[in-house]
Specification:
Radius of gyration: 33 Å
CATH topology of the largest domain: Arc Repressor Mutant, subunit A
Distance between the termini: 97 Å
Helix content: 55-70%
Number of helices: 9
Number of strands: 6
Number of domains: 2
Order of helices and strands: HHEEHHHHEEHHEEH
Strand content: 5-15%
Length: 226
């Protein structure tokens, strides 16, 4: 094709608008891609901000839980130090038929209800409520007694002011684990978290609960009605 013919061809493309339309379409595509890219960048920034906020909240929650644990242990010490001098344990290690508390959880369970209401936070009181009658709620297993997170939620809904929300149950399980010493562990089996009490720990908590709350198991029955 001669030069003049090529020029005529280009002129004809420009004249009928096909080249301009193609360029315009390409520009619009690029602009749309730029808008989508900018939107993705904004969404990424929002997601990162949400992740950062969630991480900060969790860090704050952990710090608050640790502070609450420290506070309750200090209050436990203060309450015990302020008790009557006549309240020393008998030589066989029992006081009025109940075991002498040896862990923070046992000491919490040994509180009178009035003292517990005054000294404990809401979730600490809920952990105490579960621990005092754990032999009634938990399944007997080779390691001792095991209670599932779902059953803890049921106990809390039936016997306390809690609605048994997942976060509340997790906090209660953390307190049981942290305050229970070697006698209490939180484990996860087949995707379900459970609190496992040794036989000795469960029986000691039961005896202490009977002394501090003579009403027994608070009328809570797993799978039944209050």
């Amino acid at each position: 094709m001669s030069t003049s013919q090529t020029g005529d061809f280009n002129l004809s493309l420009t004249a009928d608008g096909s080249t301009e339309e193609t360029i315009t379409a390409l520009v619009e595509i690029v602009q749309e891609q730029q808008r989508e890219l900018e939107q993705l960048r904004e969404e990424l920034a929002e997601t990162q901000a949400a992740v950062d906020n969630e991480r900060a909240e969790r860090t704050k929650d952990i710090a608050e839980d640790r502070k609450r644990l420290t506070d309750v242990e200090e209050r436990l010490d203060a309450v015990e130090e302020g008790g009557s001098p006549d309240e020393s344990p008998t030589p066989d290690g029992h006081d009025n038929g109940s075991s002498t508390p040896s862990t923070p959880l046992e000491r919490v369970c040994a509180f009178d209800d009035d003292v517990a209401d005054r000294e404990l936070t809401a979730n600490q009181s809920r952990a105490r409520f579960v621990a005092q009658d754990v032999t009634d709620y938990a399944d007997k297993v080779p390691a001792g007694y095991s209670i599932r997170s779902g059953d803890i939620a049921t106990v809390l809904r039936a016997g306390t002011d809690s609605k048994g929300r997942t976060q509340t149950v997790a906090r209660v399980m953390d307190f049981l684990d942290s305050l229970g010493g070697d006698g209490v562990d939180v484990v996860e089996r087949r995707g379900t978290k459970r609190v496992v009490f040794t036989e000795e720990a469960a029986r000691r908590l039961e005896r202490l609960g009977e002394t501090s709350s003579p009403s027994g198991n608070h009328g809570v029955v797993i799978g039944g009605e209050v």
